[in-house]
Amino acid sequence: MESSIQALKNIKTGSLYYFLAIIIALVTEVVIFREKSLANSFFVLIFELVAYGILLIGFSRMRTGFFQLSKTINTYIGTTGVNIFIIGIVALLFGAILPILIYIGGSLVFIGDVMIGYTIYKIGQRFQVNTEKIAGILVMISITSFIGYIISYFASDEVMRKMLQAPREEKLLIVSSDKSIGYGILKSNGDANVVVYSKESSEIISAQIMGYNFQTLQINPKTVMAGENRIYIKFALSGVMFVPGNIYNLEILLANNEKLLASLVYEL
Question: How much of the chain exceeds pLDDT 90, in percent?
């Protein structure tokens, strides 16, 4: 819980820094518009460098926040988007030397905005905060991204409130007296740690959460022995809102056509 709150604080700070950088950049452009003689002055150069510096620091904080939050929500798209955005900004910095970098940098900034905005939208969707979802949409549009980031800054408080108000689930582990049914925990990042019982040794062919068609990314170990077995399975959970504390059924198919069943408790 604490790490998720800190992650949201980092994302919030990143949004604020972005907005401040845009304000500084706009003020600089207004000064240039009114006093064209200052266009190539040292004063304008300093302000532009300050704006770029604040922007890069802000997005570094946001990237850290997305990475920290990946334990709760799949925010890897946002992390990648921040990396692409930063590369785009660096390309724009050298656009005066090599003009083609202006087009490359602009394209990368747009792609980064779309990926970051999508992740902000998913955060709002996950915690049912409509203002955060609106902020994500505005960031994805790119031209309205500065509005989206400042809305996200204020919406982050509501997201954190909802996270703190959410009932804390006690760690629950089902230990079944029926050895034909295993038990385990399914985490929101797709990690499943399972205990199952097999009649004989065999290779694991597949594993799936019954009623869903999630891709299985990893199974370790890939064989079971006769008796109790502890297995780690990684699922690509996406598009489904599981309820913390609810039980979901797992089916493991073995090469000998034996099917092992397990009840998994879902946790954030």
Answer: 16
The pLDDT confidence band at residue 177, using thresholds 50, 70 and 90, is: very low
How many whole angstroms separate alpha carbon 90 and alpha carbon 191?
A: 36
Give 13-62 pLDDT, tens digit per residue: 888 888 888 888 788 777 767 776 655 667 777 877 888 888 888 888 88
CA distance to 91, 112, 140, 156, per residue, from 12 (Å): 25, 17, 17, 6
Spacing of C-alpha 54 from chain mean position = 23
- Tens digit of each residue's pLDDT (9 = 90 or more) over 132-141: 999 999 999 9
Structural domain boundaries in the chain: 2-165, 181-267
Distance between CA atoms of residues 88 and 43, nearest Å: 24
CATH architecture of 181-267: Sandwich (2.60)
Q: 105-114, long-range: CB within 8 Å, 24+ apart, which pairs?
A: 108/84, 109/85, 109/142, 110/142, 111/81, 111/84, 111/85, 112/81, 112/82, 112/83, 112/84, 112/85, 112/86, 112/88, 113/81, 113/85, 113/139, 113/140, 113/141, 113/142, 113/145, 114/81, 114/140, 114/142
pLDDT of residue 173: 45
Pairing of strands 181-187, 259-267: parallel
